[in-house]
Amino acid sequence: MLSKEKIARINELSKKSKGIGLSNEEAKEQSRLRREYLETFRSSMKNTIENVRVIDPNGEDVTPKKIRDIQDKNNLN
C-alpha cells in the first residue's frame, strides 16, 4: 500500500502539471511515483483475484479453473 504522503504528492504534482507545469525533476518524480502506484495496485489486484472464490446461487464453487490452479499451486485451498 502506498503511503498517504506519496498519494498526496502524486495529486499535488498532477494539479501542478495541469496549472503552471512541472520542472524536469518534478516530472521525473511524478513518473516514479506513478510507476510505484501502479506496481502496488497491480500487486494488490493480483492478490485479490488469486484468493477469490466464486460461488453460484446454488452454493456451488464455480471458481474458474485458472484461478483454482493458481490457488492449488500456492496451497490456498
Automatic annotation (TrEMBL):
Its main location: cytoplasm. Signal peptide: none annotated. InterPro entries: DUF896 (IPR009242). It is found in: Cytoplasm. GO terms for cellular component: cytoplasm. Gene3D superfamilies: Helix hairpin bin. This is UPF0291 protein DFR59_1012. It comes from Falsibacillus pallidus.
